[in-house]
Structures are given as structure tokens and as C-alpha cells.
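#structure-requests
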Amino acid sequence: MKILCPIDFSQVSVKAAGWTTRFLNDVGGGEITFLHCMETQHRSSMFSHMDDLLKENATRDLEMLISELKKLGPDIKFSHHIIRAEPKEYIVSYSRHQHYDWIVTGTKGLTALKDVTIGSVTEYCIKESGKPVLTIPDNITYRKVQTLVLGIDSKLIENKEILQPIFSICNVFDANIRLVHIREDDEEKMTLDAALDEFFRDVDFVLDSVKKSGSISSTLSEYAKKHDADILCMIHHRKNWFQELFKRSITKMELFDIDRPLLILTD
């Protein structure tokens, strides 16, 4: 597995790096590249030496971080890339050209503007990269995955391939999946159909239907907490309830307040 891990040296992004290293080590190794985007500001050429200094400092910090992470994942291949660029567009472009399997971020940071949340960067990655995006909260401690919760809506899953990351996790850790359908008050409970049964027949899974209480994100978060899930997963279809989470900044912030790793798959 080849993972791109954007980093800005905040505590959140460093913890995400540690979580990712432990996770990748447990799934059998692979590659992690740390991508640091230096802020882009128009400045006089007489101050260009400042960019060189910032890059030197970032290089030193990344080498120190990688040295520590090698103790957690001795069989993982680490590398880093430092560029002066805006994070959103560059993360997506770099992930495509270098053929990364996943993008992993912390739930805050990655932008020099304090009033812009990680949600805007992650949302862009979800919509444009076509890759699984995993966000790691700053209050999480890594443990081997035993339970995944996958939030689903009434839209049929047409492409089984998008579920492959989940199946891979289940196979490595012998984990179980809880499919949870969040329904409105007037919506009927989802029942198991032949397509779902076919897709998940090789893993240990159950299907639940839960009435929405508050926001979708808070309902899913409470469900994941109740069942002690290690990873919460969602599928990003075009024009579905997941997209509704991003319509207002407040719901965007609610989504990224989820207190466990969030894996978003793109259909």
C-alpha cells in the first residue's frame, strides 16, 4: 500500500503520521510519503532566501520525524516531498501523478488561514482525487482494527471495487463490519437485499437501521461510539446525503469533529 500523508508539523498531523505508520505496519508494510506544502505568498526576490530557510527547516523536521517513525514501522519505506504550493490542488495532483492508494490527513491544519478548516482541503481531495481519504482525529490512540462502521444510504452500491479498502482491512485484522442506514422519521428501515448480501458475503457483517437524531454525522458518531468502532467509513456518491454534510460550514465542522478515524470512499 502506498499512502500520501500531507503534514504541516502541527500536533494533529504528527499524530496522524504515527497512527498511519502503526496501521501500515500492521497491514504488512508499504510506503508513506509526507507532503509538506509551504504557504504561497508573493514576496520580493530579495527575501527568496527565506523560502530556502523554511525548506531547510522543514527537511530537518521531516527527517527527524521519519527517524522516529522507523522505530514503529521498520519495514515501511518513508520519503518526503516539500513544495511551495497551495495544499488543495497540489495534494490531489501529486497523489494522481505518483499513483498513491490512499490520502491520510489529520482533522485540522494544512492551511495557513486559521478560519479555513481541514474540511475544505479534505472535501476537495474527496471530490477530485478519486482515492480513499482517511482523516485521523488528534485525540485517537492507535489500536488494531476490530470493528468498522460503514454508513450507507438508500442508493445502491453499484461498484464493489470501491469497497476493496474495507475488505482488505477486514481480511488483515479479521475485523467485522456494521452497515448502518441512517433514516429519516418517515423512512422505512432498510432490509438486506441480494446485492448487499453478495458484496459482503465473505466478511463478518450485520445491517442496522438507525433513526437520525440531530445531524447525520452526530448520529453516525454516536453509533460508532456505542459499538466501539475503530474506523467509521462513508461512501461519497454524487448527490447523496454525504454531500449534504458539506453544504454549510457548520455541518462541515461537525463532520470533522467525529472522534475516530474516518475513511471516505469515492464512488
